[in-house]
User: Which sequence fits this backbone?
């Protein structure tokens, strides 16, 4: 129980988010292919996040925050796939921009700022109007088959 409580405190405070220098020292190598990561990211953004934001249940700051941290970590992993593309710096930039917007969403969830979360995620039934989706699509226009 204490271990779980310690993890929860670390997770909630944002401590432990990897930075580029730490990741480089550890020589992190992703094991999941990019298409698998992106399919899961699409599920979280298009289905889960819209449900957490606009579903039948009451708006859930906890679920929005949790899904946002999961997506932000997916973007961290995605950035490590930069060696697989023609322009690694551009790829990493797209990944980092999306990650940073998603971390703003996690912060909005932590603060229970529903208006900010909706600005980032987009309108009900129109997720593509949100800043996060726009960031993802900018990358998809260049790199998605």
Assistant:
């Amino acid at each position: 129980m204490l271990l779980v409580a310690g993890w929860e405190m670390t997770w909630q405070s944002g401590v432990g988010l990897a930075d580029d220098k730490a990741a480089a020292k550890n020589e992190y190598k992703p094991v999941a292919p990019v298409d698998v990561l992106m399919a899961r990211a699409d599920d979280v953004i298009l289905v889960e996040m819209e449900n957490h934001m606009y579903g039948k249940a009451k708006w859930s700051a906890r679920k929005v925050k949790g899904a946002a941290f999961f997506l932000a970590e997916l973007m961290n992993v995605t950035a490590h796939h930069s060696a697989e593309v023609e322009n690694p710096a551009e790829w990493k930039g797209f990944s980092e921009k999306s990650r940073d917007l998603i971390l703003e969403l996690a912060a909005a969830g932590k603060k229970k700022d529903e208006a900010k979360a909706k600005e980032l995620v987009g309108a009900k039934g129109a997720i593509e109007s949100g800043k996060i989706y726009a960031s993802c699509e900018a990358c998809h226009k260049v790199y998605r088959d």
Remarks:
- Confidence is low (pLDDT under 50) at residues 1-18.
- The two ends are 46 Å apart (CA to CA).
- The chain has one domain: 18-143.
- Residues 98 and 135 are 6 Å apart (CA to CA).
